[in-house]
From TrEMBL:
It comes from the Bacteria. Pfam families: RibD_C. Transmembrane segments: none annotated. Residues 4-170 form the Bacterial bifunctional deaminase-reductase C-terminal domain. InterPro entries: DHFR-like_dom_sf, RibDG_C. This is Dihydrofolate reductase.
Length: 193
């Protein structure tokens, strides 16, 4: 089974979006360099960010996200983001009416079942869980192996929390990656078992 990683870009005060689900300046680091991060040519980062981010992206087999994120992105128009093979959507509701049943999206009720399905689909590749409520549920359930965050020098003051509604203490190991780049600090922690 591949490792389960909780990930997002986050403000220095711990938010992944404002109260209106807007990321504001969180993603400025993705256009602050001169090295293309993907085939679109839109995302351009520094060489340092590229060397950290691209290998990680290349290992992801499945992304797990909540129905809220799915709805906000219009289901990525039926195509998983960034070349990922599958998306598992944690939801109590079925796929939207008219949804293409051949699209590599799986609508699963419950975080444990969603992560199990994602691991099945990913094989030995990584399962990435979007930070926020779904990521927090997975962490609280003991399903997360690693926490990655791209911390940007922005203070939101309020909004959507990186760890969602987690209300209990969870210990992480010391960071095993601390990489400073332009407008971002890349951090990686293993979850203490």
């Amino acid at each position: 089974m591949g490792k389960v990683v909780m990930y997002s870009t986050v403000s220095v005060d711990g938010f992944i979006a404002d109260e209106n689900d807007q990321p504001g300046l969180l993603f400025d680091w993705l256009t602050s360099g001169d090295v293309s991060l993907d085939e679109s040519g839109v995302l351009k980062v520094t060489q340092t960010s590229y060397e950290y981010t691209r290998p990680y992206w290349d290992q992801i087999g499945v992304t797990v996200a909540g129905r809220h994120v799915f709805d906000l992105t219009d289901g990525w128009d039926g195509k998983p983001p960034a070349g990922i093979d599958h998306v598992v959507v944690v939801t109590h509701r079925p796929a939207p009416e008219g949804w293409d049943p051949k699209a590599p999206f799986h609508f699963i009720d419950g975080i444990e079942a969603a992560v199990a399905k994602a691991q099945e689909l990913a094989g030995d590749r990584l399962v990435e869980i979007a930070a926020g409520d779904v990521g927090g549920q997975a962490l609280a359930a003991g399903l997360v192996d690693e926490v990655r965050m791209d911390v940007v020098p922005v203070v939101f003051g309020s909004g959507k929390r990186y760890f969602g509604s987690v209300n209990a203490q969870h210990l992480l190991e010391n960071p095993d990656a601390v990489i400073q780049s332009n407008r971002v600090l890349h951090l990686r922690y293993q979850v203490r078992r």
